[in-house]
Design a protein that fits this description.
Strand order of the largest sheet of chain A: 1-3-2
Number of strands of chain A: 6
Oligomer: homodimer
Radius of gyration of chain A: 18 Å
Number of helices of chain A: 5
Largest interface: A-B, 33 and 33 residues
Distance between the termini of chain A: 63 Å
Strand content of chain A: 15-25%
Structural class of chain A: alpha+beta
Shape of chain A: globular
Order of helices and strands of chain A: HHEHHEEEEHE
Amino acid sequence: MPATDQFFQKLKQHGYKITPQRQAILQCLLDHPGHHSAEEIHQIIKTSYPHISLDTVYRNLHTMVSLGLVLALNFADGRNRYEIATEDHHHHLICLSCGQSEQIDFCPLRELAEEISREKNFTISRHNFEIYGYCRNCQPARKERG
Amino acid sequence: MPATDQFFQKLKQHGYKITPQRQAILQCLLDHPGHHSAEEIHQIIKTSYPHISLDTVYRNLHTMVSLGLVLALNFADGRNRYEIATEDHHHHLICLSCGQSEQIDFCPLRELAEEISREKNFTISRHNFEIYGYCRNCQPARKERG
DNA sequence: ATTACTGCAAAGCATTTGCAACGAA
DNA sequence: TTCGTTGCAAATGCTTTGCAGTAAT
């Protein structure tokens, strides 16, 4: 069975229809691991499905986030990134120069979640953790002393 | 000497002038600990300084962030929050219901920074870490089984 | 046949920018 | 006097929304 089936199941369960646009969006996220902006996803899909509108991409990403099929990441540049919600949870190093990002498997909540629930009586829904800087290919010029 | 002096020093060092608007913004951030949106800061300042424009607030927050005097936090609701850069570093629990936030002293970089620099050859500039959920006063209704 | 979904265009919101007048140095 | 700064208004960029036609069930 295609990898998209489990996602379609969930959509159907909640009364959503399986449209070609939704199929294209899911397929795009599965084919392109990592996080992408709505605009990027739109551009990718348009190569194989020229008719899709950016509005529809936004609308469906929002729907899929609400169903937990997709994760929305708030990066510092003012636009959200989206990635397929798979079982492996991770965070990102984001290069301020070239924009490339790299995954890190470490998650601060692994050691923190239980304590927060207990001590602060806070029910955690989600979190974000991103590290910005310069990657190995974009090392900034060394600062002068002074 | 006023608490704002060290900040004015830094502005002067970089060729910036000390304007009443800048004074008001710094004073506001010092008087109101925690993170606030540009709009909130503008509203607060207007009570004592009615003439300041929102543009100026944005422009100066940006300047102060670039000098390291102020921290910019990217929250999930699409607007940035700003707080005075003091020596005590912390992160936030943010309630999705009432919007209140609470500080946590834990910082994941304390244990991670050295490893990332070494293993990934990545120069860290900044990071963000926020936890969203429901605070003790806004606990969500318990989910039904199913 | 329903009811949800799409594309279009327009609106919304946070933030940025061009410009001429202004004010700190 | 000089050059950075301000306020205004307009523009920008990302995202959302109303609507009428369209398509999945």
